[in-house]
Amino acid sequence: MSMTDQLTILLAQIPQTVGHCRRNADAMLKIRQEAGKVDLILFPELQLIGYPPEDLVLKPSLLQNAKEELERLALATSDGGAAMLVGTAWQEKGRIFNAVALLDQGKIAAIRYKHDLPNYGTFDEKRIFSAGPLPEPVLFRDVSLGIPVCEDIWTEKLCDHLKERGAEILLVPNGSPFESGKYPVRRKVVADRVKETGLPCLYLNRVGGQDEVVFDGGSFVVNRDGAVPVSLPRWQADCYVTRWHKTEEGWSCDEGLQSKISEGEDGRLSDIYQAMMMGLGDYVRQNGFSGVLLGLSGGIDSALSAAVAVDALGADKVWCVMLPSRYTSQESLDDARACAEMLGCRLDSVPINPAVEAIDGMLAPLFSGKKPDITEENIQSRLRGVVLMAISNKFSPMVLTTGNKSEMAVGYATLYGDMNGGYSVLKDLYKSDVFKVSRWRNSHKPAHALGPDGYVMPDRVITKPPSAELREDQKDSDSLPPYDILDAVLHGLIEEDLSCSDLVKRGYDPDLVTRIENLLHRAEYKRRQAPPGVKLGSRNFGRDRRYPLSHQFRSSHS
């Protein structure tokens, strides 16, 4: 029975720098210094080393750095001020654990280990960490705190154990990546644990981009009665003090900040856009690029990519280049120019005809007697890649790739051509959603966006038939089925792991489904060479979905 009946806990919903323990520790000390009079500061999962650390955590020097910085953080608490719960990697008897350390009164007062290590989708923790035992509660200021770490909250076992061992409040440090539709799922999982245990729960998530994943924040508290007294904003850093009091029934959090959470289709599209902004912005900043460079074709994919870049980085850090060939229509040139004017970013034009003619001449002896085909189309795309990479080398902006998930899925993209680049914001966005997100952005300015109010592209860019413009009168529909059908089949094959027969039962043409499955598997070698891109859904190409390059499985054969 605790004697304390009042408690203040600061939620540090903050970003990180993976692998830079000193910088992360300094950021935590700054928060502590500015926090004022609070009892405890809760930081996200693995905040000291960054998450996900991947194989960095196997470096003995990183573990040593983390230990030294943790001791420095602990020493700072010798002033009698706020204690800290800090996520870090911790080595014991040759095993590495995903740990949380309570730092109080100048020392490491307690350490607890993550028990349930996720090993699916983006997660690969069993590769690098050992699972800890079922943890005991931590006694702090006479209050028994249960500390499930991220995945530990998703099943009943661990929280029930903490309840049985006397825990009075559940504090959950997280590194939970964004996935469209995941936020309400988190809320339900926590509400279920609260209902089962009768304990209030404080759920803290980090915010910020890390390579292909982004963390959307959205921390919250659920009281014993299921009410949510505190809800932090998503897509931004925030440090917020929660105030707790104890009655005969147990601990409760006082009413506090209630951030508005967008719901429905508008909310889904807003989340996708925010994720793309955050993923690109943090990737560019963390890797020291001066800005981004992209080919602006007059089509919807490059227009949306440019809009996301301007919103994330500012118009002065986005450089667009038109790369017209003899197949480029005046309409496309006009639309590209209009996009750049709306966004306020630099636009240059580098016609590729001289290079196309030079390559045609160079290859003429070898290609004699052969009819022009996709080879000549791909040469145009690859020459555009060469020009963009040359500008990038000379002036240092990162080339932004503009392909979408539908194209990446079926291989409707050119290696060393339009796939050139350092990052792809549309990589996990199906073409059907490219249209929806573009319309959404034309009527909404996202929070924290640095781009213009109002339109970011002409309506015609959204409504005209998509075309790669690599031959006369080319349309995407010449090679691909309508995008609403293509994307529904791809979603079934990729996100739902359905077979061809499953999709035929849904009413899709058997030959079409078989063809799309073939294209999907045959394009794996291209995707393996593609740049990283922000994860938006449940099965992105890269971290989530890992297939062999060489295999002969087809569900249409089974």
Automatic annotation (TrEMBL):
The gene is nadE. This is Glutamine-dependent NAD(+) synthetase. Catalyzes the ATP-dependent amidation of deamido-NAD to form NAD. Uses L-glutamine as a nitrogen source. It catalyses: deamido-NAD(+) + L-glutamine + ATP + H2O = L-glutamate + AMP + diphosphate + NAD(+) + H(+). L-glutamine binds at Y120, S176, K182. The keyword Nucleotide-binding applies. One of its GO terms (biological process) is NAD+ biosynthetic process. Its EC number is 6.3.5.1. GO terms for molecular function: ATP binding; glutaminase activity; NAD+ synthase (glutamine-hydrolyzing) activity; NAD+ synthase activity.
